[in-house]
Write a structure and sequence with these properties.
heterodimer, A: alpha/beta, Rossmann fold, eight-stranded mixed beta sheet, four-stranded antiparallel beta sheet, globular, B: mainly alpha, MetI-like fold, two-stranded antiparallel ribbon, 2 strands, 2% strand
């Protein structure tokens, strides 16, 4: 079976006056039908760039310098803008972080839904409107017949994200790329939106890339997780295995920094330091300055992704054994 | 909506009263009209008689109320210099200025907006660089100089266009228009373009800056991500979002077009309000000066009212309807 999306060696570069920055460095992943892949990392790890590179919307001067992106077996990274435009919104739906700014404030929600349908199908005005109303109802917007003629500012943040999801799902795409879909929302709304997304994905048989910095969110949603650090994959594997027995000290650190209600009197653990500047990466392993296990070797040679156990791959010279703490 | 208009109208009336007071006070502080009207040999009795006849001995508030009462009816008194009703003089000159300003505004928008969109979308194209360089010239060269250069080039060297005056008019029931004959157009096109040039470059730069700003927003990114056509993104989504600032600036600029028209009218000897007021000032013709002031203020107030209504039409967020409002 061909993967819905297969990314091999994707590299995104930004030419600057002081040399070329490699923001995404030979990332590979693939997503099967109906699967959810979580892409996790701190800000600046290159996770959003990966998402925008896949749909060909990198802001110049950023560009894909190497690698291949295949959608259901067909290469899409070398398509012309116009060809890729037909795929965006139709075969790949996108949900962005901030629902408050994702919709054009000057047009009604209905108009924005309908123009999306009518761009990708030859539906008439009336049919498109019916479809839009139906879709609003599906994402749980009450009174869709009335709300469809309202403007984005008349919707709350959570409702607006539902509208954005409705637009992303309109053309029944095979793949949804959700870039921090709940980060800007209240915590109570977050779980509603996640539930909605999971349910819609399952109903439509779509796959999803869930990009987030929140490991707690992906662990609930994703089948597989890929952890990015400084534009590189540092660990990947099945969700359960990666969460329960991470091999990379960075993943361990991320998991430990999730507030745990069971041990609420413990001090919240954190990873010391911050992500290095990609203009000035250290030699060897990018994580070594922050890593409790770093040794001389880590400064000399960059570790490659290597299989740890079962489905788990990690790029570390001194990976954690199951049960070991950092 | 209605409440909004009524509130704005009330504000406008207040503004007009204040301007009226300033215009009226011109009569008090800029010389003695009686001195200007009677000859050197007039006796004190004659002067007093005229003073009484003109109502200049009434208390000031009474005179202001009388003045406002007449002004509302369009009666601004007699021009000292020409001895004709100011209202008639203005009615004669107004069409010339309004046509000039209107044509300039249309030119500035019709050329400036597309140039702004183009330079915003194709930032690195060589044509954008040409536009920007030319616009810098348009912004930095004073209007009168542009007018003179155009006269030299198109009027004197090429001999294509007449260099001054206003002819080829068609009378439409008291309103003489330049727009209905080719000759009329040949007279108006050069002064109108001279007047428009500054506004045009301003609008171009404004639209460009706004487009660059809007194109970076999330909703444009999302519009791209949902596969909309570039045309619809650039013109439907981006351009509409640049309109609010453009309307604001254009509203203010139409006011300054009226003001700048004084210079342009002088350069091209265009028989409009500008020429009237320049001559009025030279002769301390206070009724002309004060009614010009009132009229310009009236234009500003009306334009601002229209601008407010346009905001309302363009941006739904300003239509605050708490009754039908959405759940927040």
């Amino acid at each position: 079976m061909t993967a819905v999306l297969d990314v091999q060696g994707l590299t995104v570069e930004f030419p600057t006056r002081r040399g070329t920055l490699t923001a995404v460095d030979h990332i590979s992943f693939s997503i099967g039908e109906g699967e959810v892949l979580g892409v996790v990392g701190e800000s600046g790890a290159g996770k959003s760039l990966t998402g925008t590179a896949v749909i060909g919307l990198l802001e110049p001067p950023g560009r894909i310098a190497a690698g291949e992106v295949r959608l259901a077996g067909k290469r899409i990274d070398n398509l012309a803008y116009e060809e890729l435009r037909r795929i965006r919104g139709r075969e790949i739906g996108m949900v962005f972080q901030d629902p408050l700014t994702s919709l054009n404030p000057l047009y009604t929600v209905g108009r924005q839904l309908m123009e999306t349908i009518r761009t990708h199908t030859d539906m008439g005005e009336k049919a498109a409107r019916d479809r839009a109303i139906e879709m609003l109802a599906e994402v749980g917007i009450p009174e869709p017949r009335r709300r469809i003629d309202q403007y984005p500012h008349q919707f709350s943040g959570g409702m607006r994200q539902r509208v954005v999801i409705a637009i992303a799902l309109l053309a029944r795409p095979r793949l949804i790329i959700a870039d921090e879909p709940t980060t800007a929302l209240d915590v109570t709304i977050q779980s509603q939106i996640l539930k909605l997304m999971r349910q819609q994905i399952a109903e439509k048989g779509a796959s999803m890339i869930l990009i987030t910095h929140d490991l707690a969110v992906v662990s609930e949603m994703a089948d597989h997780i890929t952890v990015l650090y400084c534009g590189k994959v540092v660990e990947r594997g099945r969700t359960r295995e990666l969460i329960e027995t991470p091999a990379h000290p960075y993943t361990r650190g991320l998991i430990d920094s999730i507030p745990d209600t069971a041990h609420r009197h413990d001090r919240l653990r954190q990873i010391p330091g911050s992500i290095p500047d990609i203009r000035n990466l250290p030699t060897g392993c990018n994580f070594r300055d922050r890593c409790p296990r770093a040794q001389a070797l880590c400064a000399e040679r960059e570790p490659d992704l290597a299989r740890q156990h079962a489905t788990l791959w990690a790029a570390c010279h001194f990976p954690l054994k199951p049960g070991e703490t950092a | 909506m209605l409440a909004f208009i009524i509130q704005r109208l009330a504000q406008s009336i207040l503004v007009m009263l204040v301007v009226g007071l300033i215009s009226f006070s011109l009569f008090q502080f800029v010389g003695d009209p009686v001195n200007n009207m009677v000859g050197q040999e007039a006796t004190i009795e004659q002067r007093e008689a005229l003073r009484e006849k003109l109502g200049l001995n009434d208390p000031i508030p009474v005179r202001f109320i009388k003045w406002v009462g007449l002004a509302v009816q369009g009666d601004f008194g007699l021009s000292y210099r020409m001895g004709m009703p100011v209202a008639d003089l203005i009615a004669q000159r107004l069409p010339a200025t309004l046509e000039l300003v209107a044509l300039s505004a249309v030119m500035a928008l019709a050329i400036g907006v597309p140039m702004g969109v183009y330079t915003g979308l194709h930032r690195h194209a060589w044509l954008s660089k040409v536009f920007l360089t030319v616009s810098l010239i348009g912004i930095s060269i004073p209007t009168f100089l542009i007018g003179i250069l155009m006269i030299l080039f198109f009027g004197v060297w090429l001999g294509w266009l007449p260099t001054f005056g206003r002819r080829g008019l068609v009378d439409l029931g008291g309103w003489e228009t330049s727009f209905l004959t080719l000759e009329g157009w040949s007279y108006i096109i050069m002064p109108a373009f001279t007047l428009a040039l500054f506004q045009l470059t301003l609008i171009m730069r404004l639209v460009r800056a706004e487009m660059l700003e809007v194109l970076r927003t999330d909703f444009i990114k999302f519009a791209r991500a949902r596969g909309l056509k570039s045309r619809s993104i650039n013109f439907g989504h981006a351009l509409k979002n640049t309109l609010v600032p453009v309307i604001t600036i254009m509203g203010l600029q139409i006011g300054s077009l009226l003001a700048f028209s004084i210079i342009t009218e002088t350069v091209f000897q265009w028989p409009g309000m500008g020429l009237l007021i320049i001559q009025g000032i030279q002769f301390v013709d206070i009724p002309i000066m004060s009614s010009y002031l009132v009229l310009i203020a009236l234009f500003f107030v009306v334009i601002n009212l229209i601008v407010d209504l346009l905001y309302y039409a363009v941006d739904p967020r300003l239509r605050v309807e708490r009754t039908a409002g959405g759940a927040h």
